What we know:
Elements: E1 11-12, H1 22-26, H2 37-54, E2 60-66, H3 69-80, E3 86-91, H4 94-105, E4 109-114, H5 123-132, E5 138-142, E6 144-145, E7 150-151, H6 154-163, E8 167-171, H7 183-186, E9 190-194, E10 205-211, H8 212-215, H9 229-239, H10 248-264, H11 266-287, E11 303-307, H12 316-326, E12 328-329, E13 331-332, E14 340-344, H13 351-367
The site of pyridoxal-5'-phosphate (PLP) has 12 residues, from helix 3.
Amino acid sequence: xxxxxxxxxxxxxxxxxxxxxxTVKQAMLRDLGSRDIEFIAVIQAIRQQLVALxxxxxxxxxxxxxxxxxxxxxxxxxxxxxxxxxxxxxxxxAYGERIRKIAGIHHIAAATLVFPENTQPDAxxxxxxxxxxxxxxxxxxxxxxxxxxxxxxxxxxxxxxxKYARTYxxxxxxxxxxxxxxxxxxxxxxxxxSANKCVEGVPGFSFVVARTAxxxxxxxxxxxxxLDLLAQWEGLERDGQFRFxxxxxxxxxxHQALHELEQEGGIVARGERYRQNYAITLxxxxxxxxxxxxxxxxxxYTITSFYYPEHPQFNFRVFYEQLSEKGYVIYPGKLSHAxxxxxxxxxxxxxGDVRALMAAIADTLHEMGITNA
Length: 373
Ligand SMILES: *Cc1c(COP(=O)(O)O)cnc(C)c1O
């Protein structure tokens, strides 16, 4: 096609923004008015499709919020906690810590249960905390902690939150679209993810899927104007529009990305492609002498942390730059206490791309003078 660019971008083995399909990028080559009928129909379709992917449309609804994923989390926290509410946060990585930070900025009372980055939050500790502290009204947890790639059992925590009748918030930023999630069966009241992760859209907005009865119960709680979740939902319900300038191009790309998710066979089929990317990565990295940070039973298949090799010639900056020059972008680590880097398995990448990255890593190690067993 003559509209294809002559350049080729580097492949992004990162947690997002990700490599997207050519057709997703092409969907953005339009200028739609934010109040145009065609654009309003796109928003409507996106909201319906999001709910259909994870919940019952009779009882759940979707809200789109401009900004990155963090804005979406901030929209939830600053909108759903009542003035006298208290949030319990399960933390085992940097994104759980970010939830704590957001709560602090909005003067939301918060308790935390903090676990090591290689360990899933303990369900018994959650139950004990809810049993002991009647002031806790809400529980928040990250599904896939992108810090390490650890997958937290959200259905287990959800059952406990429901047993104690607390509102349950899940950051599914880097798992929605890669893992099937059913909101009713996980007891989730508010789930958040963003456009540029496993749905394979481009950055620009996040989305919340909420239990409608929980959403309509938050009137008067919002602490900001532009991140008011209920007001945004009411605007979308009333006239199908964002209250303020929407990211029109990102929404067009996302609409196409949802179509491509369906064409691929839905979330299960997409998860299978990612799982295969992960499996190829693990086998090859193991052969090159790299060790993954997490035990196998805790690892998700969206992103993997590897320890730096214990070799005097290894320098992450050089390793990163040489891979980047070859056309492959990996991701630095974010761990508080271990030297790791990360390789993402998500985005419009398949087995061939992963094998090419593995060959580039082997070449780079060779160039750096690192020989392995
Ligand atoms: C990507 C991500 C976010 C949001 O990050 P932004 O940079 O604000 O888009 C939040 N939580 C998790 C677990 C993530 O992976």
